[in-house]
Amino acid sequence: MLEIIIDTIKDGIKLLPFLLIAFIIIEYFEHKFTNNSKKIIKKSGKFGPLFGSLLGLIPQCGFSVLATNLYITKIVSLGTLISIYLSTSDEMLPILISQNVSTNIIIKILLVKFLVGMISGFLIDLIFRKHKEKEDYSICNTEHCHCHKESILLSACNHTFKILGFIVIVSFILNLLLYYLGSDFISNTFMKESLLSPFISSLIGLIPNCASSVVLTELFVNDVISFSSLIAGLLTGSGVAILVLFRSNKNLKENLFILTLIYLIGSISGFIIELFSLI
User: Fold this and answer.
1) Burial bucket for residue 145 (CB in 10 Å: 0-12, 13-18, 19+)
2) How many other CB atoms sit within 10 Å of the CB of residue 106?
3) What's the pLDDT score for residue 84?
4) What is the C-alpha separation between 259 and 238, in angstroms, rounded?
5) C-alpha angle with apex 81: 97 to 243, nearest 5 degrees?
6) Per-residue pLDDT for 269 more than 90?
7) CB 265 within 8 A of CB 199
8) C-alpha triplet 164, 168, 169: angle, nearest 5°
9) CB atoms near residue 137 (< 10 Å)
């Protein structure tokens, strides 16, 4: 037990400088482009899913929450909202960078999420597009951080230690399970390389917290889940945006429809990728 604790802490310390650098870069873009992103989304019109998918790839604090508020007040379409939800990866990118994951894999993940988000968004708008009237809106500040009010370094430090804490906890639990149960048992539990695995990962991704992306990314880095399962989980993960949707949008039926839609797109996309990998 002591050895597991020491190894987990050592691994966390090794990640610290990489996470800090990654979040400094991310926070720079956060401070510089948040308002521009808002303007782009508002003016995107029928090309909303395209711009939404592109902007969703940029790790911006609360961007999916911004999109939720724009949708609730009828400023953007359902397709645009879904495209942003699907392309948003929360804390995935800085963790992959800090874990020295291959650049090719990172690019592949981002490309798949962009394509799935964009295509799904256009199809949804084609099928469900309704006339919408623009209204005044306000960002739900109680649901996400206020990084834009802090310095870049302070925001980066806050995010770094918050995510580092998640990583250390997840790594400790995973190391504990691997030690006592074995890697084969854990992989079988998550049904690695099974066609059903993406459906399980998609459920984890729906957890409205950055913990879901941390868990999924750590499981992938430790070779517990497959690439297809990671994609399925990351597609359904949109941070706390789902909480904002259910809290602010009074149409429960519509909220459940959106939640189901996200889950089906994420799990089926992962299923298709897994199917091709087994052929």
Assistant:
1) middle
2) 14
3) 92
4) 11
5) 80
6) yes
7) no
8) 120
9) 15
Report which DSSP code applies to 99.
Answer: T
Please say if the pLDDT value at position 142 is more than 60.
no
| Cα–Cα nearest to 53, from 116, 119, 114, 110 | 114
- Structural contact between residues 60 and 37, judged by C-beta atoms closer than 8 angstroms: yes
Map tokens 């802090």 to a residue.
150
Distance, in Å, from the CA atom of 20 to the CA atom of 14, rounded to the nearest integer, reads: 11
CA neighbor of 263 nearest in space, from 82, 67, 122: 82
Cα 143 to Cα 240: distance, rounded to the nearest angstrom: 7
* Mean pLDDT confidence for 6-30: 71
Q: What b/e sequence results for 2-19 when a residue is b if at least 16 CB atoms lie within 10 Å of its CB, and e otherwise?
A: eeeeeebeeebeebeebb
Structure confidence at residue 243 (pLDDT): 82
The structure's pTM equals: 0.76
Contact yes or no for 99/221 (Cβ under 8 A)? yes
Residue 48's closest CA among 149, 121, 146? Answer: 121
Range 271-274 contact pairs with CB under 8 angstroms and sequence separation of 24 or more: 271/195, 271/198, 271/199, 271/228, 271/232, 273/112, 273/198, 273/227, 273/228, 273/231, 273/232, 274/193, 274/194, 274/195, 274/197, 274/198, 274/226, 274/228, 274/229
pLDDT tens, 46-83?
888 998 898 888 766 567 877 888 888 788 889 999 99
- The CA radius of gyration of the chain, in Å to the nearest whole number, is 19
What pLDDT, on a 0 to 100 scale, did the predictor assign at position 70? Answer: 81
Instruction: Work out the average pLDDT over 106-119.
Output: 95
The yes-or-no verdict on residue 112 having pLDDT over 60 is yes
225 residue type, one letter:
I
Look at residue 143 in the predicted model and tell me its pLDDT. Answer: 40
